[in-house]
């Protein structure tokens, strides 16, 4: 009765609205894939404590239903996505088997461990065999039914797809799913997601599209962008282009309303000689740091503006027992001793203050004496480099109207002046981290306000 009386109070409504707004804005959507193919990794209990106390990472995804990990994350508040082993898929098309699987692998840990997703296999269409592909949708539906029959309504069922499901991705407007998979498998999968209000999960890796010619485009550095003449949108990075290609392909099947999540994406910080110059700490920090900045600013893609994707970076650790070339062992954000390979703004401030090997600039800058800094071009930056900065920033949804003719910052009409305004706006709206003013080494922070006359720089 007291609650009912309070519900008529305007002050109560304001307080409730403020509480809801605070709760919403506090939610993160950057997670990590927690792989365990290493003989030197810390125990799960130590990992759980580290993530909770030292980082802002609020969700993990694992590639099995490891009971030790599920127990370790109990009570931490960190969301845990688990994965059904590929070989279990055919058996899970039977509801009794699905209920037994839920009883053995989910119920002993839920809800103490906040399991948010069950992924039915991993990249089934990419790897096969056909028997798993044929049973995928049925297993997803039956597992969803088994959860409901067990009284569990807060765990979503999905599966992750490699972008091998796309026939093409460039330009995004001409993208479409591969024939055969489109209507035969992906349309039923998307119908399931629509009915259950669950996300279609994809694994975009600009890493695999890297070349020295498009290096900046793949790792969120300033570049001239790619123009899609059919949608008249300009893409400043490959991640946005791949995500819009997925979206267009979904729309062509009639499922543009289904949400999209990113199950895996990342970049290797070290590789063999034949994997250079792609694999480096600088490229890995730039790509993964770009993802974090996108999430913090809430910027979406050219076709999905202001869309914030739930994203799981691959991966948490460097895994020394993974097969393949050296690059496969070096996708981690952290070393086995829990030290950062590089910092992209996911460490809490007291942790990030420690120096990080191989990264010359801190992720969180020390505030100026008056609490304000501005980002401007370095004196030796060329006009060509600064024009790339302008093109990149303006392609990311930043308001560039002030530097257009008639705008308050159009004069002086020079590349350097326009670059200063746009670079600073990007820095200020992206979180004010030092790396937000890096611009491939052409940006520098100053404590002197560069505003002149009517041209006021954001601070």
Automatic annotation (TrEMBL):
Pfam families: Glyco_hydro_17 (PF00332), X8 (PF07983). It is found in: Cell membrane. Residues 1-29 form the signal peptide. SMART domains: X8. It catalyses: Hydrolysis of (1->3)-beta-D-glucosidic linkages in (1->3)-beta-D-glucans. Gene3D superfamilies: 1.20.58.1040, Glycosidases (3.20.20.80). Its EC number is 3.2.1.39. GO terms for molecular function: glucan endo-1,3-beta-D-glucosidase activity. SUPFAM superfamilies: (Trans)glycosidases (SSF51445). GO terms for biological process: carbohydrate metabolic process; defense response. Keywords: Disulfide bond, Glycoprotein, Glycosidase, GPI-anchor, Hydrolase, Lipoprotein, Membrane, Plant defense, Signal. InterPro entries: GH, Glyco_hydro_17, Glyco_hydro_17_plant, X8. Belongs to the glycosyl hydrolase 17 family. It is an enzyme of class 3 (hydrolase). This is glucan endo-1,3-beta-D-glucosidase. GO terms for cellular component: plasma membrane; side of membrane. It comes from the Eukaryota. Residues 373-457 form the X8 domain. It is a lipid-anchor; GPI-anchor.
